[in-house]
């Protein structure tokens, strides 16, 4: 928890839910400990998509399709989502959820984002980066290539439950590589002259970047 727990609880208590089906997908995912988007962040994601009104969305990290379905609820009618997932059981679950939701505007690309990103042409005017945290920095050049000027990039889990502010020696050895790469990523997002970025302490930390040139 990176913000006061009572404040976070209060913010979550304001969440009106997303209808019976999506609420069920959410409950099931949390029960199975699938790392779906936090409640506070989901409101932030939906608000950004609603404000941006994108034509094409790219999501890296589908899991069981929860966040893709959230976005589909608020995006313009003619918008399309491309989402990438490499873990087979989650691919199957996501496909079943898209089917059950009757949502045909979402295309699931199966495989490693590392390979798939290189083959995409875009442009994607909204990108939700929500996969392996340690890879964000390596994927950034491809992500920037896929974004038009005015495009929005939302990167999730960038504050790593607060770990990112700890000294490298205060985080567990096995987390040090991710810690270092996430700091590099946040530095890159905030210092790249093509981007205007705000790091927001919502949920597990989110960075919103707009491509300005
Ligand atoms: N966006 C989802 C949660 C995604 S969890 C939601 O909020 O509902 C992160 C997902 O990224 C996991 O399911 C994991 O299997 C996937 N992932 C991690 N590394 C990946 C990679 N290199 N390529 C494709 N998917 C990856
Ligand atoms: Mg996430």
Automatic annotation (TrEMBL):
Superkingdom classification of source: Bacteria
Binding site for S-adenosyl-L-methionine: 37, 67, 85, 112-113, 130
Keyword S-adenosyl-L-methionine applies: yes
EC assignment: 2.1.1.-
Keywords: Magnesium, Metal-binding, Methyltransferase, S-adenosyl-L-methionine, Transferase, tRNA processing
Catalytic activity: 5-hydroxyuridine(34) in tRNA + S-adenosyl-L-methionine = 5-methoxyuridine(34) in tRNA + S-adenosyl-L-homocysteine + H(+)
UniProt GO MF annotations: magnesium ion binding; O-methyltransferase activity; S-adenosylmethionine-dependent methyltransferase activity; tRNA (uridine) methyltransferase activity
Binding residue positions for Mg(2+): 130, 156-157
Main function: Catalyzes the methylation of 5-hydroxyuridine (ho5U) to form 5-methoxyuridine (mo5U) at position 34 in tRNAs.
Complex formation: Homodimer.
Protein name (Swiss-Prot/TrEMBL): tRNA 5-hydroxyuridine methyltransferase
Organism, scientific name: Candidatus Lachnoclostridium stercorigallinarum
Species lineage: Bacteria, Bacillati, Bacillota, Clostridia, Lachnospirales
């Amino acid at each position: 928890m990176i913000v006061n727990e009572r404040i976070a609880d209060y913010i979550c208590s304001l969440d009106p839910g997303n209808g019976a089906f999506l609420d069920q997908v959410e409950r099931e995912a949390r029960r199975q400990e699938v790392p779906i988007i936090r409640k506070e962040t989901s409101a932030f994601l939906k608000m950004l998509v609603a404000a941006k009104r994108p034509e094409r969305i790219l999501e890296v990290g589908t899991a069981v399709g929860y966040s893709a379905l959230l976005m589909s609820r608020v995006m313009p009618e003619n918008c399309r989502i491309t989402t990438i997932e490499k873990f087979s059981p989650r691919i199957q679950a996501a496909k079943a959820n898209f089917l059950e939701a009757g949502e045909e505007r979402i295309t699931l690309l199966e495989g490693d984002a590392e390979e798939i990103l290189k083959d995409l042409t875009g442009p994607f005017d909204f990108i939700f980066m929500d996969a392996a945290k340690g890879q964000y920095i390596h994927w950034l050049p491809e992500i920037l290539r896929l974004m038009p000027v005015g495009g929005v990039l939302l990167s999730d889990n960038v504050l790593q439950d607060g770990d990112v502010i700890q000294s490298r020696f205060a985080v567990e050895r096995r987390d040090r590589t991710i810690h270092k790469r996430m700091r590099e990523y946040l530095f890159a997002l905030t210092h790249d002259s093509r981007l205007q970025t705000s790091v927001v302490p919502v949920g597990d930390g989110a960075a919103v970047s707009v491509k300005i040139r």
